[in-house]
Amino acid sequence: MTHRLVLGSQSPARLATLRSAGLDPEVIVSGVDESVVTTPDPAALATELAVLKARAVAPRVEGEALVVGCDSVLAFDGAVHGKPADADEAVRRWRAMRGGSGVLHTGHCVIDTGSGREVAGHAATVVHFADVSDAEIDAYVATGEPLAVAGAFTVDGLGGAFVTGIEGDPHTVVGISLPLLREILADLGVAWTDLWVRP
């Protein structure tokens, strides 16, 4: 059984989360156009995009590996949000979200290129947003950080001060649920602890 891990994402937060958990994946960016999937259900949307990303990367991997695809969307006030299209949209979104709560959905898919097996799953976490001022929103959006992430916020960066609480796995909000990934790998016969990089 191979223990080579490939992350099909350009997200530095996902890579940092895996590395802090003792893993050291290779990175191959999927290049999937996220706009091609328009499923209205946020859990299904996040999972379908994760599957597409893993399937886009798997054929490009030489040799046997475990390919991980992930995608996140925010469900808020009956709408589903990925990355904002521009700064104006990020500002509008934050003005709507402040003082409220949303659900961050992250889909996961792992493909074992050796066996061809594929396992997908989804994690959801409730996020509570601070009642931030217009000036704080404008300053945050001006940094560019909200434009690069689903839901227009982070908890592990500048946006962390604007999130007052999380109900569920905090890693999901960063974009990859370590407990769920552990379960998916177990379904594929891979022990989480065997993926730890030891000196």
Describe the protein's topology.
Elements: E1 5-7, H1 12-20, E2 26-27, H2 42-57, E3 66-76, E4 79-81, H3 87-97, E5 101-112, E6 118-129, H4 134-142, E7 163-167, H5 170-174, H6 178-187
Parallel strand pairs: 1-2, 1-3
Antiparallel strand pairs: 3-4, 3-5, 5-6, 6-7
Helix pairs in contact: 3-4
Give structural notes.
Strands 1, 2, 3, 4, 5, 6 and 7 form a 7-stranded mixed sheet that branches. The chain is of the alpha/beta class and 199 residues long. It is 30% helix and 24% strand. The protein has one domain: Maf protein (Alpha-Beta Complex), CATH 3.90.950. It has helices at residues 12-20, 42-57, 87-97, 134-142, 170-174, 178-187; strands at residues 5-7, 26-27, 66-76, 79-81, 101-112, 118-129, 163-167. Helix 3 (87-97) runs antiparallel to helix 4 (134-142).
Short description:
This protein is α/β, with parallel strands linked by helices.
List keywords for this structure.
single chain; 199 residues; alpha/beta; Maf protein; seven-stranded mixed beta sheet; 6 helices; 7 strands; 30% helix; 24% strand; globular
Just name the CATH architecture.
Alpha-Beta Complex
Q: How many helix segments?
A: 6
Fold-level CATH name? Maf protein
State mean pLDDT (0 to 100 scale): 95
Give the distance, in angstroms, between the N- and C-terminal Cα atoms.
21 Å
Biggest beta sheet summary: 7 strands, mixed
Number of domains: 1
Give Rg in angstroms.
17 Å
Low-confidence stretches: none
Into which percentage range does the β-strand content fall? 15-25%
- Number of separate strands: 7
* Series of secondary-structure elements, N-terminal to C-terminal: EHEHEEHEEHEHH
